[in-house]
Known about the structure:
The chain is built from 9 helices and 10 strands. By secondary structure, it is an alpha/beta fold. The strands form 2 sheets. It has an 8-stranded parallel β-barrel with strand order 1-2-3-4-5-6-7-10, surrounded by 5 helices. Strands 8-9 form a two-stranded antiparallel sheet. Helix 1 packs parallel to helix 9, helix 3 packs parallel to helix 4 and helix 5 runs parallel beside helix 7.
Amino acid sequence: MADMKLAVALWGFREMPLDKIIESCPQMGIRRLEAQLHSAVPLHFDAKLLSPDTDRILSLANSKGVSFVSLATANDFTLEQDKLEAEMAYVREAIRFAARINVSILRIFSGFEPRNKVCGKTFDRMVAALAKSAGYASEHNVRLALENHGGIASTAEDMLKILSAVNSPNLFLNFDPANFVAEGVDCIRAFELLKDRIIYVHLKDVRTSNGHKEFCAVGEGMIDWRKLLSLLEDRYNGVCAIEYENAEDPVEGTTRSREFISKIVKCD
């Protein structure tokens, strides 16, 4: 059985430049990264970066034995039509950038409008935008991984509904078990329903604090990791990216997560 391929999803590192993150990889014991590709994280990649800047980062990563396995957007396809066109252009730009640096997975979102507003024409526009983006990505040998993130993408059934409506062989899923649990969804059942379309996985935990759900390091929340990691080990062979979201101590939190995971499964 192959070792679990671990990466680091860098939302928690949003206040740290890529140079420093790359230098921190040996400390975390991980050599794969998912970088942000949007204006809210200016210290990471920008699709409009001049080639020398991008090449410098890639050269540093290569010298440290670190690779980028995915990129993440912050697109919103649930907006009104006048704003949707700009969102689609942004995703196309991200696709081209991913292809240019040989990253084959682009993590995307359906959108962030409340569930009760994503119906009728709004839902149809979202589906059309996802379909066009998936087709464009296919032309550039990039696969889109749609994340379950709340709202219209809260449950396994939501994800299946979106996949069915889009009906594209190039739209896959980014499985985030903690996001499911935060929505009151059984993440084990969700995995069983979605496993055939999952190409990317996020690993973080979730717990209740002062009556609210908060994300935390793997093993520090309510998820049954022995059961979930066993399922992933047996039925999934892609990358699992640790996503520790607290920007105050991302290296320490990611390291704690990796150490916990390594006690249950063999990791690469």
